Each structure stands twice: as structure tokens, then as C-alpha cells.
Predict the structure.
Amino acid sequence: MKALTGFRLLLLGLWLGAAVFFIVVAQVAFASLPARDLAGNIVSRTLAILNYAGIGIALIAVLTSLIVPDGIRRIGVWAERALLIIFGLACAVSQFVISWWMLMVRTQMGKPIDEVAADDPLRIQFDNLHEYSAWLLLTAIAAALLTFVILALRSAPVSAKKDALNNLDFQKQFKI
């Protein structure tokens, strides 16, 4: 069973690393490419890969969480599953709802986004959808990170947890 926990930790860790890398790539793309539309195309394709990976990882992790060894507290397992479902749903809504609407709005604009006035209703709608997309990505990252912490704490040996708590004698460590 430790192998399944380690596998789920690996998948979540890989996705979290990819999400952080995506954020950096998005910033660099918009800062260095000559046209913001080119950067937007790169970011939307990269985000699609991240979202599809998140959906797949959430599905695999939820299915493997159904194999529960004896001695595991059920509340931790259900918290893990709930967070994985939130993680997967955030990726799915981002990919299949928000990204699709953003593409439709960009198509309706008929010209690059930077050439559309800031008070244009389509530009306002696009900016709002972009904000929703960012919040969904942050939700997915938070859910994946919390799940990662739950799994990591579960897989740590009990003696290591007790030793860590017993070594928190702040008076001894911070004597002046």
C-alpha cells in the first residue's frame, strides 16, 4: 500500500511542479514574445496540457485511493478524495468551460485582444474569464498541495512524527 501512496505522491508532485513551471512559462511568454496573441496561443495550449494531466491524475488518484489498507483513518481518506475531486473538477471546468468561452470570445473579437478597447463588452468578458481561469488554477494547485501534504504525513513513520513533535522545545532552542 505504501507503493500506491508513493505513486500518488509522485503524480501530484509532478503536476504541482508542472503548474509552477506553467506560471513561469506564461510570464516569460508574455514578456518576451513580440505579439501577445502568440504568447496567448502558447499559454492556452500549455494550460490545456496541464488541465488534461490534472484530470487524469485526479482520476487515477481517486481510483487508487479506493484501495485502503487497515489502520488508516477514514477521515483522512475522505479528505484526500474530496480534495482530489476538487482538483480534478477545477482542471475540468478550466479546460472545458472557461477555455472554451475564452476561445469563443476571442473569435468574436475578430482582431487581437490588445487592439480591442478596454471598455468593449467582449474585452471585459474576456478579462473576467481570464480571472476565473487564474482562480481555478489556484484552486487546483491548493487542492493538489493539500492532498500531497495529507499523503506525505500519512506515509511518514509514526516514530518520526513523534520525534518531530518532541523536538519542538522552543525554550531550549532559543535560549538567550
Remarks:
- The radius of gyration is 21 Å.
- The chain is about 80% helix and 0% strand.
- Residues 2-156 form one domain.
